[in-house]
Amino acid sequence: MNLIRSFALLLVAAVVATPALAQDRRVPASGAELRLSYAPIVQRAQPAVVNVYAAKTVQNRNPLLDDPVFRRFFGVPGQQPEQMQRSLGSGVMVDPAGLVVTNNHVIEGADQVKISLADKREFEAEIVLKDSRTDLAVLRVKDGREKFATLEFANSDELLVGDVVLAIGNPFGVGQTVTHGIVSALARTKVGITDYQFFIQTDAAINPGNSGGALVDMTGKLVGINTAIFSRSGGSQGIGFAIPANMVRVVVASAKSGGKAVKRPWLGAKLQAVTPEIAETLGLKLPNGALVANVAPNSPAARAGLKPSDLIVAIEGQTIDEPNAFDYRFATRQLGGAAQIDVQRAGKTVKLTVPLETAPDTNRDEIVLTARSPFQGAKVANISPAIADELHLDSQTEGVVVIDLADGGTAASVGFQKGDIILAVNSQKIAKTSDLDKASKVSSRLWRIVVVRGGQQINVTLGG
């Protein structure tokens, strides 16, 4: 007992003796201070965080059932049995009319979606918008006749490393759970989850089932949507990632406006990272910034005066360390205005004004190929500037590109991938989707296909 009292006196003495180091740290002065809690924040935020249940029907595909002789001999029906696959995640109510934001991977391919509130009530929901580029999706409660509790968006650009945050979700399906930690890093770009690599990293415990849940600050506002963890075991290792609220806000705004796709500003220029070798060539002290590789004619970048070899170092006064940072900053700007960017050109800083407008999306002519061929089940489109931007293709690329693949379709099973550009089929040049549709309907014992994937041309031969 005396030892404990003496230690306390020494601690107080140390605090008094070193006020500069102590800052605001002190021993609790009362029992009331010992009872300080995050409970008021949780009570405000928790009603707006929901559980998301998604289900999709799949067929148990037995390859023997494709053989009509096998089916006839054994009397097996041609219709293959179905099975229900279920997934579980979390979501955040962002509009009192029943608009919920969650992760796209939680509801991907779902036939049925339900949400469950903190008070255990369940509602059926419909998918309003899916955005694979950010791994976000927006749901709407069906037949919602009440006003739901919501979370207000914070300005995620104001977060600092060390800020205390709470993660709210439904880990492992055990029920709504709150964990706390700090923002352990900002602008994480080498995570490899979505197109826009600019994550908030936190050590608040995040586990499977937390996906789509809320990351809130000490004012109870939404600073991010929890989306992934770094784990060797499948459980929390103290490294979780959240999509910043400023990006979430853009996706929700598109859903509210009735759009089926997210509208974002289009730059019309290809950017690349500055390596130490490039930095040395350019005479830079640090390998920072986004280097302009090429500029599309008549694009916003071209009209602003951006040129190849320009080095983008800032946008609206915010420093740009690499292309991912620029992509995020630019994508979260509001359409219709303009963005000021700082460029280093020939050793001088040049300020340019880039108009914020969407990429042209004309003459897509999307079709799903259904004829018996290696392309069966592929959705293809003519390459427009909007598709080139979405799939990270060169802005001047022309031709027909795979934009989606049906589960269980022939195209997926033979190895086609989203982003593949089809140049030729059986020596016939493919310039537009109607060309590919026509070529896929021609019966052939061998299919000779020329594909461009990742900038590399591949010649493929498949059996008919």
Automatic annotation (TrEMBL):
<feature type="domain" description="PDZ">
    <location>
        <begin position="249"/>
        <end position="347"/>
    </location>
</feature>
<protein>
    <submittedName>
        <fullName>Do/DeqQ family serine protease</fullName>
    </submittedName>
</protein>
<feature type="signal peptide">
    <location>
        <begin position="1"/>
        <end position="22"/>
    </location>
</feature>
<dbReference type="InterPro" id="IPR001478">
    <property type="entry name" value="PDZ"/>
</dbReference>
<comment type="similarity">
    <text>Belongs to the peptidase S1C family.</text>
</comment>
<dbReference type="InterPro" id="IPR001940">
    <property type="entry name" value="Peptidase_S1C"/>
</dbReference>
<dbReference type="InterPro" id="IPR036034">
    <property type="entry name" value="PDZ_sf"/>
</dbReference>
<keyword id="KW-0720">Serine protease</keyword>
<keyword id="KW-0645">Protease</keyword>
<dbReference type="GO" id="GO:0008233">
    <property type="term" value="F:peptidase activity"/>
</dbReference>
<dbReference type="InterPro" id="IPR011782">
    <property type="entry name" value="Pept_S1C_Do"/>
</dbReference>
<dbReference type="GO" id="GO:0006508">
    <property type="term" value="P:proteolysis"/>
</dbReference>
<dbReference type="Pfam" id="PF13365">
    <property type="entry name" value="Trypsin_2"/>
</dbReference>
<keyword id="KW-0378">Hydrolase</keyword>
<dbReference type="InterPro" id="IPR009003">
    <property type="entry name" value="Peptidase_S1_PA"/>
</dbReference>
<dbReference type="Pfam" id="PF13180">
    <property type="entry name" value="PDZ_2"/>
</dbReference>
<keyword id="KW-0677">Repeat</keyword>
<keyword id="KW-0732">Signal</keyword>
